Amino acid sequence: MGFLTGAYLKMQTARMRLQLQNELTSIVSQMNRVTKQVGQMERMMSSQQRQMNMAMQNQYRFGMMDLANRQGFNFLNGASVWDAAGLNDNEKAERLMMMQAYQNTQQQMQMQFSQAQSIWADQFEMMREAQLQPLKDLEESLAVRKANIESRLKLIEGQEQAAQQMEKSSQKDFVPDYTGQG
Q: Do the Cβ atoms of 143 and 31 come closer than 8 Å?
C-alpha cells in the first residue's frame, strides 16, 4: 500500500509543483511589466521636469534681458547708458540710483525664480509619488506573492522527494524473495 500512496503523492506533488511554477512565471512576467511601466513613467516625468526647468530658465533670462534693456543696458551690443564719462553730478547720482534699482530688481527676480523652481520641484515630486505609488505598491505585492510561491515550491519539492522515498522503500515489498529464506 505504501507503494501506491508514494506514487500518488509523487504525482500530486509534481502536479502542484507545475501549477506553482506556472503561477510563478505569471507573477514574474507581471513584475517585469510593472517595473518597465515604472521606469517609463519616471523617464517621462523626468523629461517633463527638465523641459519645465528649461522653460523657466529661458523666461528668467528673457526677463533679465528685458529689465536690463529697460534700465538702459543693451546686452546685445554692449552699449550702456551707465557710462558716466562727461556727466554732471546730478546725472551720475541719477544713474547710480538706476543701477541700484536694477540690482534690487535683479535680486528680487532671482529670488522669485528660485522660489518658483522650488515650488515646481515639489509639485513634480508630489505628482511623481501620486502616479508611481500605485505601481510601486503593485510591484511590492507581486514580490510578496513571488516569495510566497517560491517558499511553497521548496515545500512541495521536499514533499515530492519524501514521496519518492516512500515509493522506493515500498518497492522492495513487491519483489518476490526467491531465496526461500523468507
A: yes
